[in-house]
């Protein structure tokens, strides 16, 4: 059976999507430099889905030497890297991260979405893919759903051409930056021992709980206080693997809700 590799931790839905397409899905670990390309080589896969600019959900940026290794792997196996640029529009550290697609346009299909910039309900996105893939992708799209709604696409095109899409992005960058700052400040004030990583882009960060802390117990105790948290284990191929981490989303919360939420659960996060 043909294999596709996914980052671990990562979005678990992708496994079901791959399996429905008749592919065998294999997890490849992510460390502090991004996806482990040496481990990928050993999987026998010829395709991989990666989030190099801001790994979902760890927030790690793929290191330059790993980028080179990934492209070299794709060339070696005559394969494909699918680069998911899901939140690239929202970077806060000002250091632009080059795309893999720019490095190796013939080996990388880059996918983007308006789910983060406008709304997930629109169900619109795009693929920038090598010319050898265009016809096959267009065919799959046609037989999958006969195409995305034309009127919605035209409305999006008008928004982009008028310059309002860019204006919206500029505005939302400042809104999300304020929410991100509120999360950083609230944690520093209420749970200063908790390290927060993965903040370079997007709308989520990762909180490192003290070793030995039960992720699920923290999530459940927070829920009892009406604060919704996600544990990292829900993104792992093997949920039993530690260390304990929380994935903290701040995209759809007001600054005051973030501050109140962190204050309400600070004792659950802090060390003994
Ligand atoms: C890693 C990642 N990629 C892509 C998306 C967007 O997916 P879609 O365009 O299907 O809404 C999300 C949304 O949560 C995501 O987390």
Structure characterization notes:
- By secondary structure, the protein is an alpha/beta fold.
- The chain is 40% helix and 18% strand.
- It contains nine helices and eleven strands.
- The strands form two sheets. Strands 3-2-1-4-5-6-7 form a seven-stranded mixed sheet. A four-stranded antiparallel sheet has the order 8-9-11-10, covered by helices on one side.
- Helix 3 links the parallel strand 4 and strand 5.
- It is globular.
- The model has no long low-confidence stretch (mean pLDDT 95).
- Pyridoxal-5'-phosphate binds next to loops.
Any descriptors?
272 residues; four-stranded antiparallel sheet; 40% helix; binds pyridoxal-5'-phosphate
- Strand share of the residues? 15-25%
What share of residues is helical? 40-55%
Bound molecules: pyridoxal-5'-phosphate
Q: Structural class of the helices, strands and pairings?
A: alpha/beta
Question: What's the multimeric state?
Answer: single chain
Distance between the termini: 49 Å
Query: How many strands, which pairing sense, and closed or not: the largest β-sheet?
Result: 7 strands, mixed
Strand order of the largest sheet: 3-2-1-4-5-6-7
Shape: globular
| Low-confidence region ranges | none
The count of DSSP E runs of length 2 or more, i.e. the number of strands, is 11
Count helical runs.
Answer: 9
Based on CA atoms alone, the radius of gyration comes out at: 20 Å
Along the chain, the helix and strand elements come as: EHEEHEHEHEEHHHEEHEEH
Query: What does the average pLDDT come to?
Result: 95
């Amino acid at each position: 059976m043909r294999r596709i590799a996914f980052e671990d931790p990562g979005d678990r839905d992708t496994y079901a999507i791959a399996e429905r397409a008749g592919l065998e899905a294999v997890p490849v670990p992510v460390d502090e430099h991004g996806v482990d390309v040496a481990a990928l080589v050993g999987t026998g896969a010829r395709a991989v889905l990666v989030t190099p600019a801001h790994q979902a959900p760890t927030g790690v940026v793929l290191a330059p030497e790993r980028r080179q290794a990934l492209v070299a792997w794709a060339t070696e196996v005559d394969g494909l890297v699918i680069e998911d640029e899901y939140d690239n529009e929202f970077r806060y550290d000002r250091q632009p991260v080059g795309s893999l697609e720019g490095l190796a346009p013939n080996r990388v299909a880059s996918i983007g979405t308006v789910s983060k910039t406008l709304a997930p309900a629109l169900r619109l996105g795009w693929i920038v893919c090598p010319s050898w893939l265009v016809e096959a992708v267009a065919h799959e799209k046609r037989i999958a759903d006969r195409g995305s709604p034309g009127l919605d696409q035209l409305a999006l095109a008008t928004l982009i051409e008028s310059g309002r899409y860019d204006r919206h992005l500029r505005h939302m960058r400042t809104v999300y930056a304020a929410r991100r700052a509120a999360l950083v400040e609230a944690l520093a004030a209420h749970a200063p021992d908790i390290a927060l990583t993965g903040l370079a882009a997007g709308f989520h960060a990762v909180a490192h709980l003290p070793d030995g802390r039960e992720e699920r117990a923290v999530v459940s105790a927070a829920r009892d206080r009406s604060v919704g948290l996600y544990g990292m284990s829900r993104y792992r191929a093997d949920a039993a693997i530690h260390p304990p981490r929380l994935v903290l989303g701040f995209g759809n919360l007001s600054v005051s809700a973030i501050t109140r939420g962190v204050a309400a659960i600070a004792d659950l996060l802090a060390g003994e």
